[in-house]
Amino acid sequence: MVLATVDPAGMVWQRMVLLKDVSPGKGFVFFTNYASDKAAAIEQNPRVSLHFPWNELDRQVIVGGVASKISVAETARYFLSRPRESQIAAWASQQSRPISARAVLEQQLAAMQAKFAQGSVPVPDFWGGYRVVPDRIEFWQGGVNRLHDRFRYTKNQDDQWQIEQLQP
Ligand SMILES: Cc1cc2nc3c(=O)[nH]c(=O)nc-3n(C[C@H](O)[C@H](O)[C@H](O)COP(=O)(O)O)c2cc1C
């Protein structure tokens, strides 16, 4: 899914992240580096948007909601289920920070491979999940002659979803 954030300067940015969990009534979970640009933006403004493009079906789903960090226990459950190489790679990258050459990244990886040569790889304290709790979801389905179907679900103050059909 595409995750859009707004930083304190009002700059909108978007990037792809993997949806790792979605639970009814809860939200959409992804994992990332808590020191990344997206994390810095979320820290200042937790309102985010998710976009699921589904071109083959002429369909899209757009989510608006609020992101917050999941618990350390929940992050650990997922981290420990990942392949060892992915666990070590999480340690090796200071995501979103500039680097002078690819070789430096490879050195960082080699250093982490050496550091964690034995035993299990601990969960980095700078890495974990976010859950986006939606308060607005739009379902869009392409139709013939541009008569597309759009349904907007908005959470009202009583925590009920209000559904409106929108013009395409
Ligand atoms: C298909 C795809 C899946 C990705 N999944 C993730 C992910 O789950 N977590 C993540 O941190 N970055 C993921 N990335 C990389 C991000 O798009 C992005 O480059 C990175 O998170 C840094 O973003 P930032 O500098 O805006 O924080 C993915 C990229 C692609 C193309």
Describe the structure.
- This protein has 168 residues and is an alpha+beta fold.
- The protein has two domains: 2-80 and 125-166, Pnp Oxidase, Chain A; 83-122.
- It is built from four helices and nine strands.
- The chain has helices spanning 37-44, 72-79, 84-92, 102-115, and strands at 2-6, 12-16, 21-23, 27-33, 47-54, 59-69, 127-141, 149-155, 161-166.
- Strands 1, 2, 3, 4, 5, 6, 7, 8 and 9 form a nine-stranded antiparallel sheet that branches.
- A hairpin with a 7-residue loop joins strand 7 (127-141) and strand 8 (149-155).
- The two termini are 22 Å apart.
- The model has no long low-confidence stretch (mean pLDDT 97).
- Bound molecules: flavin mononucleotide.
- Flavin mononucleotide is lined by residues 13, 15-18, 30-33, 36-38, 95-96.
- Structural class from helices and strands? alpha+beta
Rg is 19 Å
Overall domain count = 2
Q: In angstroms, what separates the terminal alpha carbons?
A: 22 Å
| Biggest beta-sheet profile | 9 strands, antiparallel
Number of helices: 4
Jot down its keywords:
168 residues; Pnp Oxidase, Chain A; 2 domains; nine-stranded antiparallel β-sheet; 4 helices; 9 strands; 23% helix; binds flavin mononucleotide
Summarize this structure briefly:
By secondary structure, the chain is an alpha+beta fold. It contains 4 helices and 9 strands.
Write the layout of secondary structure elements.
Elements: E1 2-6, E2 12-16, E3 21-23, E4 27-33, H1 37-44, E5 47-54, E6 59-69, H2 72-79, H3 84-92, H4 102-115, E7 127-141, E8 149-155, E9 161-166
Antiparallel strand pairs: 1-2, 1-5, 3-4, 4-7, 5-6, 6-7, 7-8, 8-9
Helix pairs in contact: 3-4
Bound molecules: flavin mononucleotide.
